[in-house]
Structure formats: structure tokens, C-alpha cells
Specification:
- This protein is of the alpha/beta class.
- The protein folds into 2 domains: about 250 residues, Aspartate Aminotransferase, domain 2; about 130 residues, Aspartate Aminotransferase, domain 1, CATH 3.90.1150.10.
- A 7-stranded mixed β-sheet has the order 1-7-6-5-4-2-3, sandwiched between helices. Strands 8-9-12-11-10 form a 5-stranded mixed β-sheet.
- Strand 4, helix 6 and strand 5 form a beta-alpha-beta unit.
- Helix 1 runs antiparallel to helix 2 and helix 2 packs parallel to helix 9.
- The longest helix is centred in the C-terminal third of the chain and has 23 residues.
């Protein structure tokens, strides 16, 4: 199992991003962990190795990333995967046919697709509920419920789950609380501190921050649960290569700085959008008009760079998407560059149209991932684009 170095947790957060989970290479003194590009390891003798046998099970570069992110989330164990969905799928392998999981209704479209279109074929069942209301979580629990999985803030409607309340419910019913923390990153929110059992990320997004790799990671504290996930990771093999691990680790070194700028730009842009479009059409927890603004201030230390806005129609959305020049029309989020997308046809295309409509993921909804460019350039770009609607 990949455990953090215990002394890492004595550092403050920004120091952890740079130093946690790694030490200068003992052979050369290299300040960056080497990219250990190998598939296997020579053993000293029969049954005797140096802690490594085959790279699917362990890789030193991957372990450095796992320790680093575990320290950032305040956890003891980290496990990296080949993608965010590879991480989610591997976590679902903790469960079995007949198990029931309560899931936030507005999770990422790929998470919904995995559960509704694949895992149900293996006898697992899922209830998708509005986890903004703790009572709805409680009402969805059955004798076969084994876990509660939430994403907060949600993609793309920026809804929040009260993590302390969700944890209390999970503990009362002996469920695992699993939290997707991708949108917030550990800079702004650390779910383990509120009682979550497992926190996970698409490392593709804010943790890497440079749009040059695909990956996922989960962090937890329980030793027995960590042993089970280690077994799954090795047995199922959805693990990242050393280069992707190194790229993600390179990204976390600037995470604290980048997320502060994402957050600053997000606040300015959300305020401008609310003035231009009206509070009710802008989804951003940093706005005082957001119905869960007080909760956001309670469990987050900032609001981030993710904003969604209702333009009113697909034609209006197309106009905005077609006029931006600094924002790029693309899927994904959390990179240094600003992206803009159309959830109904991109991130949530796999969700049935009637379900999207019921959730509020309309044809007129667009989602912004505010990068770290000069915010005045971003605002000028949006002024041009929204001028056509």
C-alpha cells in the first residue's frame, strides 16, 4: 500500500504541494522524482525483491504522486488510476451484485453512464437523488444500501452536498461515503475532514492543471479498505503509466497558486455574468444569490473557477460558443487555459434527454472553466460573445 511519509502532514498546504510524498533521488540527488519507465524489476533472489515485482502493482513515480495527493487531502493512502472513470470503476469493484448505492442525481455524465448502462448489468442498483436535501438521502437508503456517492460542487449545475450531514447519515447506516472532489480540488475542500471515507479526483483536471494527461486518484485513511483497493488496482489493472504520474505530480507543485487564480477569475466572471444575465441564470456558489452560498462558505475555502450559465436556448448557446476567442470550445476543465462547453451535447450527452431536462441541464446551458489568463481579457472575450444574445 502507498502510505504518505508521516512528517508530510506537519507542513502547511502550499509546502505539501511541492514536497509531500517525495524526496530527492538518493542516487543522483535529483530534486524531481525520476520517471521510472519500466515494466518489471529484477529480483535479488527467489522470493526476495526490493519492494517491487511488476509495474502494474507498483511504480516509484506513481507512488510519489499517490503520497503527494494523499497528503494534500489529509489522508494516509493514495491510489492512482489511468483515468477518472478508471478510478470510479475500480471503486465500484469494492461492491457486488445485489448491492445498492445512493448517488447524487447531478453527477458527471460519465459516472451516470457507468452506473446506469454498465454496472446495472452486473446486478448492482443505484438511486439517483437530490443530495442537496439530507432527508432525500435518508429516504433512498434500503437494507441493501452499502454506499453514498456524491459530487460537490456538481457538474454542471454547481449544486452542493452538506458533507457533514452526509457523513452523519452514512455513519448511522454503516455506509461508505465516497466524494468526488474534482471541481473543488483539495485547495478549496477536503472531504475527509468532514467524515468522508474515500475522496477521489480526475487528476486530468485541477491536480494536473495543464491539459496534457489523463488520470484519476483516490485517497482514504482506513488500512483495511486501502488493502482492498490495492488488490483491485493490481488485479484489474486500471493504473497510470509513469509519465502520466510524473506529469500529474509536476502539476500539483503549482496547485495552490493556480487554484487561487482560478478562484479569483471565477469570482470576477460570475459577478459579470450575474449582472449581464441575471442572478437566477448563473450557477456559481460564490454568488450570494446561490441558494447554498452559506454552505459553500462553511465547507469550502473558496469557490473555484467553474461557472454555468443559462443562455435561454440552444441557438443562444451556439452564438456564444461560436464567438469566443480566448475561451476554447472543448470538453474537460481545470487547466490553465479557459474552456467553454455545452454540457447537453458534451459532458452529459450520455444522459437521456428527458432526464437532462428534469435536472436542468438544458440545451441553453453552457459551462465555463475559467483559466488563469488575465481576467480582463476573459471578460472582454465574454462581452463580445454574449453581445449576440
Amino acid at each position: 500500500m502507498t502510505r504518505i511519509f508521516d512528517e508530510d502532514l506537519t507542513f502547511r498546504f502550499a509546502t505539501r504541494t511541492i514536497h509531500a510524498g517525495q524526496r530527492p533521488d538518493p542516487t543522483t540527488g535529483a530534486i524531481m522524482p525520476p520517471i521510472v519507465q519500466t515494466s518489471t524489476y529484477v529480483q535479488l533472489a527467489l522470493g526476495e525483491n526490493q519492494g517491487y515485482e511488476y509495474a502494474r502493482g507498483k511504480n516509484p513515480t506513481r507512488e510519489a504522486l499517490e503520497r503527494n495527493v494523499a497528503a494534500l487531502e489529509g489522508g494516509r493512502h493514495g491510489f492512482a488510476f489511468s483515468s477518472g472513470m478508471g478510478c470510479t470503476d475500480s471503486l465500484m469493484k469494492l461492491f457486488k451484485s445485489g448491492d445498492h448505492i445512493v448517488v447524487g442525481e447531478n453527477v458527471y455524465g460519465g459516472t451516470y453512464r457507468l452506473m446506469d448502462k454498465i454496472l446495472t448489468n452486473f446486478g448492482m442498483t443505484f438511486s439517483f437523488v437530490d443530495t442537496r436535501d439530507p432527508q432525500r438521502i435518508s429516504d433512498a437508503i434500503t437494507p441493501s444500501t452499502v454506499a453514498l456517492l456524491v459530487e460537490t460542487p456538481t457538474n454542471p449545475l454547481m449544486r452542493l452536498t452538506d458533507l457533514a450531514a452526509a457523513s452523519a447519515i452514512a455513519k448511522q447506516h454503516k455506509l461508505l461515503l465516497i466524494v468526488d472532489n474534482t471541481f473543488a480540488s483539495p485547495v478549496l475542500q477536503r472531504p475527509l475532514e468532514y467524515g468522508a471515507d474515500i475522496v477521489y479526483h480526475s487528476t486530468t483536471k485541477y491536480l494536473n492543471g495543464h491539459s496534457d494527461m489523463i488520470g484519476g486518484i483516490c485517497v482514504l485513511n482506513d488500512d483495511d479498505l486501502a488493502a482492498r483497493i490495492q488488490f483491485i488496482a493490481n488485479a484489474a489493472g486500471a493504473v497510470p503509466g509513469p509519465m502520466d504520474s510524473w506529469l500529474a505530480l509536476r502539476g500539483t507543485k503549482t496547485l495552490a497558486l493556480r487554484v487561487r487564480q482560478h478562484d479569483a477569475n471565477g469570482r470576477r466572471i460570475a459577478d459579470w455574468l450575474a449582472t449581464r444575465m441575471g442572478d437566477e441564470r448563473v450557477f456559481y456558489p460564490g454568488l450570494t444569490s446561490h441558494p447554498q452560498h452559506a454552505l459553500a462558505k462553511k465547507q469550502m475555502s473558496g469557490f473555484g473557477g467553474m461557472i454555468s450559465v443559462e443562455t435561454g436556448s440552444k441557438a443562444n448557446a451556439a452564438t456564444v460558443l461560436g464567438k469566443v476567442k480566448v475561451f476554447s470550445l472543448a470538453e474537460s476543465l481545470g487547466g490553465v487555459e479557459s474552456l467553454i462547453s455545452h454540457p447537453a451535447s458534451m459532458t452529459h450527452a450520455s444522459v437521456e434527454p428527458e432526464r437532462r431536462k428534469a435536472l436542468g441541464v438544458t440545451e441553453g446551458l453552457i459551462r465555463l472553466s475559467c483559466g488563469i489568463e488575465d481576467v480582463d481579457d476573459l471578460l472582454e472575450d465574454l462581452e463580445r460573445a454574449f453581445g449576440g444574445i
